[in-house]
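name: query_chain
kind: protein
chains: 1
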Amino acid sequence: MHGRRRGTVEMNPVERVQRAVRWVDTWQQRHRPAAFVFAVFKKFGDDQAGNLVSLLTYNAFLATFPLLLVLVTITGIVLRNHAGLQRQVVNSAFSEFPIVGGQLHEQLGVTAFQGTGLALTVGIVGAVWGARGFANAVQNTLNTLWAIPKVDRPGFPGNLLRSIGLLAVLAFTVAVPICAAALTAAGSRVGLSGLPAQLLVLVVSSLLDGALFLGVFRLATAAQVSTRALIPGAFVAGVAWQLLLNLAGVLLSHTVRHAEAIAGLFGIVLGLLSWFALQATITVYAIEADVVRALKLWPRSLTQPPLTRADKSYLTAVTGAEARRPEQRIDVEFTPPDRPAPEK
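structure:
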C-alpha cells in the first residue's frame, strides 16, 4: 500500500480547506455569541451596506458646511447680546468634528458672516438642499436594513416631513457637549473630578446621544418596525459616538496627521470624510445587530447547502422588499439541497 494505512483516504489541499471551513461553520452555529456576531457581519455584506455607508458619508459631508453656517448665523442674530452663550453654542457644534473642528471653523470664516442676511439666505438654501439628501439617505438606509418593502415606505409628502423631523432632532446634538460641560462644572463644584467625573460625563452624554439616535431611528424607519426593536441599536450607537469622540485623536491621527502640511481645505475634506465614514459604519453595524436580534436572523451558514432557517428568513425578507405595488405579490420557495432547482 506504499506506506498508507489500509482504509484511509488522503485528502487534497482543497478538501482539507473545505473540511476546515465546515468545522468552523458547525462550531459557530452551535455557539450563540459567535453565531450572532457572524450573522451581523454576514448581513452587512449581504445587504451591501458598504454602499449605504458611502451614501451616508457623502450626504453628511454635503450637509455639514451649510448647516454649520446657518447655525452660526442664527446664533449670531438670536444671541447677539449674549456673547458667552453664543461662543459656547458655536464651539459645541464644532467640537462634534474632532481634529478638524478648529480648521473647519477657520475655513468657514463664520465670524465674517455672523448676523448678515446674505449668509443666512445662502446657508438656508444650501442647508435645505444638502440636508434633505442626508435625511433621505438615512431613511433609505434604515428601511433597507430592515427589509421594508418599497411599497410600504413613506412617499411624498410623508418622507419630506420625516426629513424635516430628522433635521430637527439632529439639531439637538449641539446641546450634548453643552450639557457635558455643565455637568463637569457642577461636578467640580461638589468635589467630583478625575476618572469618576469623566465616567459620569461619558454615561450621561451616551444616554443623551442614545435618545437622539432613537429619535432619528424612529423617524427614519417605517411604522412596521416597533420602537422597542430600535432601542438597543440606538443606545449602542450613542455609546459608540461618545467613545469615538474621546478616542478620535488616536483613531484619526493616522489619516489626517499630515493635514497641516497639506492645503487647509483638503485636510478638512479628508478629516471630515474619515470621521463621517467611521461613524456611519459603526452606526450601520449597530442597526444590523438590531435587525438580527429582533428578527432572530441567526445562526447563518458560512457554506451552503444547506440553508439554515435564518438564511431562508433573510432571503425571503430581502426578496419581498422589492415589492413596489400593492397588487404585486412575491413568493419565495426553496428546493431541498439534494433536489435540483426546476428549469425555467
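note: DSSP finds 13 helices and no strands in the chain.
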